[in-house]
Design goal:
Layout lengths: L1 H7 L2 E5 L2 E5 L5 H11 L6 E4 L3 E5 L3 H14 L2
Amino acid sequence: MTRVLGEFLLDIRPAENLLVLKTPPSGAQPLAAAVDGAKFPEIAGTIAGDDTVLIITPNRKTRESLQKKIESFVK
């Protein structure tokens, strides 16, 4: 997870119960696969495009918890 985030994650944008992860072109699929593989309990689902991963959480509190976890991998 640390390697994939370090390689592909450009920005994290929170929005209520959603996290938008920005990547370079073609980076969303490998990042989404890594996030799905990590099996974070906070995640209800993910959607990946070309350069964006949308992570859906049940509520704002779980989104904040997940965001902190993801940010801890890239520090």
